[in-house]
Write a structure and sequence with these properties.
Elements: H1 3-26, H2 38-68, H3 74-94
Length: about 100
């Protein structure tokens, strides 16, 4: 894979990864209705965790591709790394 293509793919993956991770976390907030069957609640929880896992893998893959493409596309790789790390740092700092 060309480094410029990897840089473009990294930008797409980091944005998609954060969107998927956000959905995976936000879909777990709140209490389900008491009338919802237990099996449906468990299925929704498993789906949310799977989406969260895919989002995290997308972010990690984007960071790897960003490192691979840094020599050919410095600006795109740096933007991708910033998009990967800065929200994570903001989340960690908000928990303190």
């Amino acid at each position: 894979m060309k480094q410029t293509t990897a840089a473009n793919l990294a930008l797409v993956l980091v944005v998609a990864g954060w969107l998927l991770a956000f959905y995976g976390v936000m879909s777990q907030l709140g209490d389900p209705s008491p009338s919802v069957p237990r099996a449906q609640i468990e299925a929704a929880r498993h789906l949310s965790l799977a989406v969260l896992g895919v989002g995290v893998v997308c972010i990690l893959a984007a960071l790897c591709l960003s490192g691979f493409s840094f020599t050919a596309a410095k600006v795109r790789a740096s933007v991708c790394a910033a998009l990967g790390f800065l929200p994570a740092i903001a989340v960690i700092l908000s928990m303190l």
